[in-house]
Amino acid sequence: MSVVLQITNKSDLSAQIINQHYVVYFNGVVVSTIDTKDIIHLNSNGYTNIPIHILFNPKQAATVAFNNLTNFFNDKSKINFEVKGWLSIKLGTIKLKNYPIDINYTLQEILDAKKQADAEKATTTNSVENVGKKDLAN
């Protein structure tokens, strides 16, 4: 599974993420820990999407899934997904160490966001296709 963290850099200078550490929780149970020293470039005056690739501990993930089976079918808002941790950023010679990250969503919020993104993509694709058809017809 991947989660995308979007970071905005309002500076005229680009920056780099030089170290990351995250702990992944499902309903308060630790299911994964992520540590990486991969260097990621942050665009100046813009945003950068950073994928966080999560590998689950199968035993812990199965336990959480089993304990929340009823909620999965009846109330997805009671299934919580959280990523806590930190990242270190380098901007020129300045280093910001252990900048805190805390991302918290319910399964329902994730599903709703996906539906919205799919709907927006379909609308954009439909608009582009219609413009192309209009241009060909004229």
If you had to describe this structure to a student in words, what would you say it looks like?
This protein has 138 residues and is an alpha+beta fold. The protein is built from 3 helices and 7 strands. The longest helix has 31 residues, at 107-137. The N and C termini lie far apart (46 Å). The model is unreliable at 126-138 (pLDDT under 50).
- Oligomerization state of this entry? single chain
The computed structural class is alpha+beta
* Overall morphology: globular
The counted number of beta strands is 7
Q: Please report the distance between the alpha carbons of the first and last residues.
A: 46 Å
Rg calc: 20 Å
Helix content: 25-40%
- Poorly predicted runs of 5 or more residues: 126-138
The helix/strand order is EEEEEHHEEH
* Residue fraction in strands: over 45%
The main β sheet shows up as: 5 strands, antiparallel
- Helix count, DSSP H or I runs of 4 or more residues: 3
Q: Averaging pLDDT over every residue, what do you get?
A: 79
